[in-house]
Amino acid sequence: MSATVDNTEANASPPKEFTLRSTIALIGAFMALFCTLGFQNAFGVFQAFYHATILRDHSEFDIAWIGSLLTFMIFFFAAPAGVLVDRVGPTPLLTFGAIATILATFMISLCKELYQFLLAQGILLGIGNAFLLCPAMATVTRLFDHHRGAANGIMIAGSSIGGIIWPIMLDQLLNKDGVSFGWTFRIVGFVVLPLCLFMVATIRPAPKTLHDSDREGIELSHGESESDHKAQGAEGPAAIIKNPTFLILCAGLSVATFGLFSPLFFISTYATDQGLSVSLAFYLVSMLNGASMVGRVSTGFLADRYGNFNLCFLTIASSGLIAMCWTKATNTVGIIFFALAYGYTSGVSPSDLKKNPPGPNTAVAGHVQSPNPVCRPALDARVEGGCRRHSLCRASNSVSIVFFSRIARSCRLTHSYSGLVGTPISGRLLKHGYLALSMYSGAALLAGAGLVLIARLRQNTKLMAKV
Predict the structure, then answer these.
(1) Maximum separation of any 2 CA atoms in the chain, in Å
(2) What spans are recorded as compositionally biased (Basic and acidic residues) (predicted)?
């Protein structure tokens, strides 16, 4: 039966993927990441602004809980959003996410106290972003198969473009035009509103093609029930979750996440402490995110050539070493160089771990950022081998590439807890100076890189092997 199916797949021409409908949906997904992970990547701007103005009576540690709670809610609610997108489709979830995101944005404009920011910018905005982000990414993985790498690259670029544009926009409104904080966020809300309407209108579930129907009919006609195929598809995820290499990899990425966001969130406050202007401090966040986009694209190609695990280890270890050099950047040129270097290496961040199709792609992100992750393909090969014959299993595989399989959800949940406490720890360490913060961030990243290296050596002990 396998030979018959394989011959049928070889003879059938793949359907055209970049249709008008799929392209518009891809643009909608780009906008989703622009408004969610892109805005999250700009939190360093708010960290500096809140500490200098509205929340000046609170410590960096207290303010950091806003950004860490936002990160936690995005990753944590990725799990239920991933379950629901298969059951009800993307449109209801996008509608809920759009309403929650817009409501949170306008509520932030009214905030005066820390607890209000935690509720509006931390919890409500995080939940809304999760229900915008997950359906958009899941839909793109289902619309594109042969060109998934290119589609993911375009989609994930939205987070980096957002990380570039949002800080510049906020700087112009707050520091140049003298717009109040309340009206600045209302303007942000009016910008996000039409983008959310566009997402809801354009991101639609992929139609079931004749190509898929024929293939499914061929398989089921050979006497195999749908339940048999589902059982076969379930074996792969169960085996991978019990795989020690996968568990070590998840542990390494979670440990690295503890220190990942520290430079992103505190680069602006560090710059102002070194005597740089507030405007330049805002622009440093844009520079860091711009460099991360270049890193995501370039390492996507390098991973195909040198191996996913190898690139994952090298980029995390490089981020750790650069983070430890943070306080040696004491002038304008040095701080800009640090932002660009860290942005480039952290573009392939633990928080963006997912299966890496050929070509440029990331993480979302999450920054958060996010984060173009490069480690999962070797572990997923066995799962794909067992699942690729049936359309239901292929659909499940597509979603697992982003967040929504049991495997991805388990890894994402561990990252969410790391992201929740990692940044407040950084804020607490600031009372001992930025040297303590840089050592903490670098040590967490290097410890995570060490665990990723162990997972890599379990795959192949030869140092020069492509893994």
Answers:
(1) 74
(2) 212-232
* Domain 18-206 in this protein, CATH class: mainly alpha
For residues 38 and 142, give the distance between their C-alpha atoms in angstroms, rounded to a whole number. Answer: 23
In tens digits, what is the pLDDT along the chain, a chain of 467 residues?
445 544 544 455 556 777 888 889 999 999 999 999 889 888 888 988 998 899 999 988 889 899 889 988 988 888 788 788 888 889 999 999 999 999 999 999 999 999 999 999 999 999 999 999 989 988 888 888 777 767 777 888 888 899 899 988 988 888 877 889 999 999 999 999 999 999 999 998 766 654 444 444 444 444 444 455 444 444 555 566 677 888 888 888 888 888 888 898 899 889 999 988 888 888 898 899 888 888 877 776 677 678 778 888 999 999 999 999 999 999 999 999 999 999 988 876 443 444 433 333 333 333 333 333 445 444 444 444 443 333 333 333 333 333 334 445 555 555 666 767 777 888 888 888 999 999 999 999 999 999 999 988 988 888 888 87
Long-range contacts of 44-47, Cβ-Cβ distance < 8 Å, separation of 24 or more: 44/167, 44/264, 44/265, 44/266, 44/267, 44/268, 44/269, 44/284, 44/285, 44/288, 45/166, 45/167, 45/170, 45/171, 45/268, 45/282, 45/285, 46/121, 47/265, 47/266, 47/268, 47/269
DSSP H/E element including 324: helix 308-324
Domain(s) labelled CATH 1.20.1250.20 in the chain stretch across 18-206, 241-354+396-466
Residues 6+ apart with CB under 8 A from 8: 214, 215, 218
Q: Which class is 241-354+396-466 in CATH? A: mainly alpha
Closest by CA position to 252, among listed 437, 422, 402, 446: 446
Within 13 Å and on the Cβ side, how many CA atoms surround 225?
A: 3
CB neighbour class for 421 (10 Å; exposed up to 12, middle 13-18, buried from 19): middle
**168 CB-side CA count, 13 A:** 11
